[in-house]
Amino acid sequence: MSTVRFKLNTQAVSVSCAPDRRLLDILREDFGLIAAKPGCGVGRCGACMVWIDDLPANACLVMAFRLEGRSVRTYEDVAADAASAPVRDAIARCGALQCGYCTPGLAMTLTHLHQQTPRPDREQAASLLSGNLCRCTGYGGIQRSIEQLFPATPPLSADNSGDSQ
């Protein structure tokens, strides 16, 4: 057992636990934060996505000993932030949720990408979202959300076309 101190949704917290306890379990069992969902358990589905020091991370892969002095944000906090409103609106408008199990993780990744400067283009955003899986295969709505939130790839100009006329 060891005590780990970190910020959780802007609040200083500490937890005594085994150093190899997963962040996902700490969030759900010790703090009652259940938006991060248990999914694959190996970091491939994104259902447990959180932000650590403002970067997306799969909570199932983060052990307690790695949390000391870090800042963890969960969907419960990010969803209350006005900065996530465009993403939440796009998900709702475009039907990018079916059973809702993957939605918090999806929203965490999309919100992170949407806050980047410069913002990724549509193709980049779709590629960067590859770590978030929808078990209901609701990818049509997810794709429409990406189209609303991220610009299309700019067309090639005549100088970049590769034509040598």
Automatic annotation (TrEMBL):
Transmembrane segments: none annotated. Keywords: 2Fe-2S, Iron, Iron-sulfur, Metal-binding, Oxidoreductase. The keyword Iron applies. InterPro entries: 2Fe-2S-bd, 2Fe-2S-bd_dom_sf, 2Fe-2S_ferredoxin-like_sf, 2Fe-2S_ferredoxin-type, 2Fe2S_fd_BS, Beta-grasp_dom_sf, Diverse_Oxidoreductases. Residues 2-78 form the 2Fe-2S ferredoxin-type domain. GO terms for molecular function: 2 iron, 2 sulfur cluster binding; metal ion binding; oxidoreductase activity. This is Xanthine dehydrogenase subunit E. It comes from Parazoarcus communis.
